[in-house]
Amino acid sequence: MTRLSEISDLSDACGGLVVRRDHPELAGALDWLIRNRRLVAVLPGVYGRSDLAHLPETRMRAACLRHPDAVLVKGAAARLTYWPDAPLGDVEVATRYAVARSAGFLFTRRRIPPELIRERDGLRFTDPVLTAIDLADFDCADGIDIALRARAATLAGMHEALRLSRKRRGNFERLRLLLDSRDNPWSAAERLSHRLLRRARITGWEGNWPIMIEGDQYFIDIAFKALKLAIEIDGRLHETDGDLFESDRWRQNALVGAGWRVLRFTWAMLRDHPEVFVAAVRAEIR
Known about the structure:
Layout: H1 3-13, E1 17-19, H2 27-35, E2 39-43, E3 46-49, H3 56-66, E4 71-72, H4 74-80, E5 91-95, E6 105-109, E7 117-120, E8 123-126, H5 128-135, H6 142-149, H7 155-164, H8 171-180, H9 188-199, E9 206-213, E10 216-224, E11 229-234, H10 242-257, E12 261-266, H11 267-272, H12 274-285
Parallel strand pairs: 5-6, 11-12
Antiparallel strand pairs: 1-3, 2-3, 4-5, 7-8, 9-10, 10-11
């Protein structure tokens, strides 16, 4: 077997990557491939095939190969677990020691509790309970809402992850977001509707309440069970996701057929006319 074919086999086995320090005997062949741009540096000492080096998956694997203690966090961890199309710019990585920044990466010195780390196929990444609260910034809780909707994490699990990560800067705001999630919102629009109901002191409802109708399970966005009143919230995704739009209509038809009254509100209605939303709900309750 030639050196070049040996490198090709190693690369195929590692997702298109080769680590120089692990194969000093291949230094000459590696240098030839690098000079001819068949391999390019993804991280210092970690080289990838030129057609794969730019891919997020390649960068994630490169981080874990270069730094054995590395843990993928935030968007990278979300893509590997519950949110395949999570926003991802730089691949964010937690390490126990300081690492210089490289293009396409953001390394943070941080200790992740072992019980909050998952490992698969040589990749180490945070559990969804920690990923969700890491992703939630102080203006947007999509990371938490999507984890709840995917049932990849529970609020109790997120509270435990926060407890295990105590003394981190920003934990007070993370706790505030978790408390704001106590009624199980699955989108920003649902979260806003919950806030409006609580602010108006309207009680007797549950968020994303499961119900079986003729053998099919549905989740009512906001259910006043005692009144058989369902409040359905069309969030921002409904404007672009045709499947979601249609599934909500099937659900509404099933609820009406089972004797439920249904009110629908959009994200824009909640944002621009919150008082109309509250008044309409109060009218139906009366």
